[in-house]
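Fold this sequence, please.
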Amino acid sequence: MKLSKKTLSIILIILSTFLIAVAQILYKKGAPLLQWNIISILTNFLIISGLALYAIGAVLMTYAMKYNSLSTLYPILALSYIWVNIMASLFLGEIMNPLKWAGSFFILAGVSLIGYGADKS
């Protein structure tokens, strides 16, 4: 089965949101180790890994933008909020309360509507 370039671009944007979320978790885990000088930043594996994942995410986004409209792809980046909420509760021990779950649901609903609307254009 061959994917269309528009479908591939959506998959790449979703992958990018996941990588961005992982990068943010790595930033959070690496931040307490910083002493706010350039050496501590350059030797902090967690921060450097987060920066690398952000860079990979940016490359994926750029490639995806080549094959689909910005108005379709850009709102999908909001999925990173959902990934961060899930990962923060799994890896950082943060609590997902009902309000956070409701917000995540509305983000998913909005992204779905935008995706559905893109098929109609």
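DSSP finds six helices and no strands in the chain. The helical segments are 5-30, 38-42, 45-65, 70-73, 79-91, 98-119.
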